[in-house]
Design a protein that fits this description.
about 775 residues, alpha+beta, Aldehyde Oxidoreductase, domain 3, Aldehyde Oxidoreductase, domain 4, 3 domains, 7-stranded mixed sheet, 5-stranded mixed sheet, 20 helices, 31 strands, about 25% helix, globular
């Protein structure tokens, strides 16, 4: 495996102006994880804690006619049982990043109607998991089965059963027509006129699958009711403040009654982006029993709780003979499952990603968000981007072949670049590109993969093993910042920092580390600003009572948004340290600078250590040296990626092997190469699984999920990963980011499936438009079955 940091001088050399930025610093939790000492939510134990099990519907669509819990309640060890009769009757929303006014509310803590196999019917808290499971089995339910719509086409067909009678938006109540939650429309120019100008027009329909996020850690919730009526909550969540808000709204209690504790996650990838149905159930059982409770989902329950939104996407593209794109039209049918979750926002983002890849004067996007009687879909790394990227990048290769233009050259002629406007997160967030390394990563990536071999591989159609080289490029935004103060998406963060008596610093942020090490990057940013070592910055484990608000770990915003706010707080603290140092040294503040743990006077050898400043401040009672910042983001720096892949296709078995990967990324100045490279490797693995094998399958007769476990749902493992993996970075600097940095998390995933699709097409001469590309689909494309 080869990992190259950059083609420009490597970080950490004598030419590097930074002491901490660019350092390959291990994650501060690495040793704790490796030794098994890091505490996850599943490790939380409280005396007297009860275990929860949930009774779930065996039917995809059914009314609860009657429910008898008397046998369960009489069982020894059962402390509380709840059904829809015990739960609040108000609908609630689940998204963390949206204000209540813009959030679809179609969930109930326990509904009186099941909308998918696995929907909640009742829940039990008991002295052990076994007792709770037996009690759940003793609950008697009479269902009235209703017709079910188990895919998007069936849901919008005339006469389809109505899944939701109403959806609440703010003060408004809407009735979904033909199970369509919302239709999103975006456009620029005149699409009809654009296609009239085109010399070549192609149209294809793509299907992209329902992929599971597959974090190692299963969802877990612990709720401890205090004697004063408050609730302490530990949960596998990407937002402690978002969870507090949504949980309070679902239960109808004040925010102040809930304190959510920050926890490390064993992966998330969007699976913990929204509040799930389980958190309010656990809270309600804790309130009813008066005892601490714990709910940990089984692997099957966890895999049925979230997924990527599957979609059917029709794309029509028009281009002039000289390779200029003139018209794009996309229509997407997006399956949100039984509840809205992130469905509308994912679809809006699909439109934004679609319209912001290339300079196309005439574009139109129409996205239909459709309810089905299947497990709900939710956020997943890329948030609608892979679903749009596969059709777009497939068309770019098809158009290139039609016109006889090299695919890399075609992209270089049409990509959006510095100064261009783009839709950052759907129709309401528009920004302009400030820094752009697309040309560098495309040209350098082509050279590294040996792109000149592609044409020869396309001509070699003999032999059992066919080789192919393909390209996919993508972009994503670093957060959701926008100029408008009042908008339909939240984007602000807060940090507090204090100096300790030994000269170290404590950073408090509500941002959740999903396992990627983003908080290590924050420590490096703070250390660089204060003239400390990254090892001297302690990142606190906090809670909603003690921390300033941070919206959520999503949208590739951790470094660009929350990291920038940490830097601003550190700059305030730096100014205080300089002021105190100037008092101690009896010099002007402007003559003092911080570096290497000291405050130094310019042009002299006079200095005082930060430890001495802290101890002097204590002895002289100047107060705690601390600072805070809370700020919203107003920009969304785009980060760009490309992946070149080489594949082998076995024409007898249809099996596809990824032989080599070259991954180029424009992430601005790299804060920590170890963390960024990890994101790129992980994003590629998820993208390749999306392209080749991953798909949650729902039985179209019974509505049951057929593969809700890792025995039947296959993902790439470390043994399947491509060993020849070359990572490189563009030489760019983003002025709006902390020390020139941009995001990477989602863009690392967005381009991988497209690269696989185009590589397979180069090998076999057929563009497969139905993902995942299973061996059967390959053999069918080759005409052998």
């Amino acid at each position: 495996m080869t990992d190259t940091v950059a083609e420009s001088p490597a970080v950490g050399t004598t030419s590097d102006p930074f002491a901490n930025i660019g350092r390959r610093v291990p994650k501060f939790d690495a040793i704790h994880k490796a030794t098994g000492r890091l505490k996850f939510v599943g490790d939380v134990r409280i005396a007297g804690m009860l275990d929860i099990k949930i009774l779930r519907s065996p039917h995809p669509h059914a009314e609860i006619v009657s429910i008898d819990t008397s046998r369960a309640e009489a069982m020894p060890g059962v402390k509380a049982v709840i059904t829809h009769r015990d739960a609040p009757a108000r609908p609630y929303g689940r998204e963390f990043a949206l204000p209540p006014e813009y959030m679809p509310r179609d969930n109930f803590v326990i509904p009186d109607k099941a909308r998918y196999v696995g929907d909640v019917v009742a829940a039990v808290a008991a002295t052990s998991v076994d007792v709770a499971a037996r009690a759940v089995a003793a609950i008697e339910v009479e269902y009235r089965k209703l017709p079910a719509a188990l895919n998007a086409s069936a849901a919008v067909a005339p006469g389809a059963a109505t899944i939701h009678d109403a959806v609440h938006w703010g003060e408004e109540r809407e009735v979904p027509r033909r199970n369509v939650l919302r239709t999103v429309e975006m456009g620029v120019g005149d699409v009809a006129a654009g296609f009239a100008e085109a010399d070549v027009i192609i149209e294809n329909t793509f299907t992209v699958p329902k992929q599971q996020q597959s974090p190692m850690e299963r969802r877990c919730i612990v709720v401890d009711p205090r004697p004063d009526g408050r609730l302490d909550v530990w949960c596998t969540t990407q937002s402690i403040h978002g969870l507090r808000h949504n949980l309070a709204r679902a239960l109808g209690i004040p925010y102040s009654r809930i304190n959510v504790h920050q926890s490390f996650l064993g992966g998330a990838f969007g699976a913990r982006l929204d509040m799930n149905v389980d958190e309010p159930i656990a809270a309600l059982l804790a309130m009813k029993s008066g005892l601490p409770v714990r709910l940990q989902l089984t692997r099957e329950e966890d895999m049925m709780s979230t997924s990527r939104h599957p979609a059917t996407v029709r794309l029509r593209s028009g281009m002039k003979r000289d390779g200029t794109l003139v018209a794009h039209e996309m229509e997407a049918h997006v399956d949100t499952g039984a509840y809205a979750c992130s469905g509308e926002w994912v679809t809006k983002c699909m439109g934004g990603w679609f319209m912001s890849m290339y300079r196309v004067p005439h574009q139109k996007f129409t996205g239909h968000v459709i309810y089905t009687n299947t497990p709900p879909a939710a956020g997943f790394r890329g948030f609608g981007n892979p679903q749009a990227n596969v059709p777009i990048e497939s068309h770019m290769d098809i158009l290139a072949d039609r016109l006889g233009i090299d695919p890399v050259e075609l992209r270089l002629r049409n990509y959006i670049r510095a100064g261009d406007a783009y839709f950052a997160q759907g129709p309401n967030v528009v920004d302009h590109i400030k820094s752009c390394g697309v040309e560098e990563i495309l040209t350098s990536g082509a050279r590294r993969i040996g792109w000149e071999r592609r044409a020869e591989l396309a001509r070699q159609k003999e032999g059992r093993i066919l080789k192919g080289i393909g390209l996919g490029r993508a972009f994503h935004t670093s957060g959701c910042g926008q100029a408008n103060e009042v908008s339909d998406i939240l984007e602000y963060a807060g940090s507090t920092i204090k100096i300790n008596e030994d000269g170290t610093a404590n950073l408090t942020t509500a941002l959740v580390d999903m396992g990627t090490g983003n908080l290590m990057g924050h420590a490096q940013i703070v250390a660089e600003t204060l003239g400390l070592r990254a090892e001297d910055v302690i990142v606190n484990v906090t809670d909603t009572d003690s921390s300033p608000y941070d919206v959520v770990t999503h949208a590739s915003r951790s470094t660009y948004v929350s990291g920038m706010v940490a830097k601003l707080a550190a700059e305030k603290l730096r100014d205080k340290l300089r002021e105190l140092a100037a008092r101690i040294l009896e010099v002007a503040v402007e003559d003092v600078a911080l570096a290497h743990g000291h405050a130094r006077v310019h042009g002299t050898d006079r200095s005082v250590s930060i430890e001495e400043i802290a101890r002097t401040a204590q002895m002289r009672q100047w107060g705690t040296i601390m600072a805070e910042e809370s700020r919203r983001a107003v920009t969304t720096a785009s980060h760009f990626t490309c992946k070149f892949v080489e594949v082998s296709v076995d024409t007898e078995t249809g099996h596809i092997t990824v032989d080599r990967v070259v991954a180029g990324s424009d992430v601005g100045n790299v804060i920590n190469p170890v963390l960024v490279e990890g994101q790129i490797h992980g994003g590629a693995a998820q993208a390749f699984g999306y392209a080749l094998m991953e798909e949650i399958q729902v039985d179209q007769d019974t509505g049951r999920t057929l593969n809700p476990d890792f025995l039947n749902y296959k993902i790439l493992t470390s043994r399947d990963a491509c060993r020849d993996f070359d990572v490189f970075f563009a030489d760019t600097y983003e002025d709006t980011g902390p020390f020139g940095a941009k995001g990477i998390g989602e863009s690392a995933n967005n381009d991988g499936a497209s690269a696989i699709v185009n590589a397979v097409a180069n090998a076999i001469g057929v563009h497969i438009t139905d993902l995942p590309i299973t061996p059967e689909k390959v053999l069918r494309a080759l005409g052998t079955i």
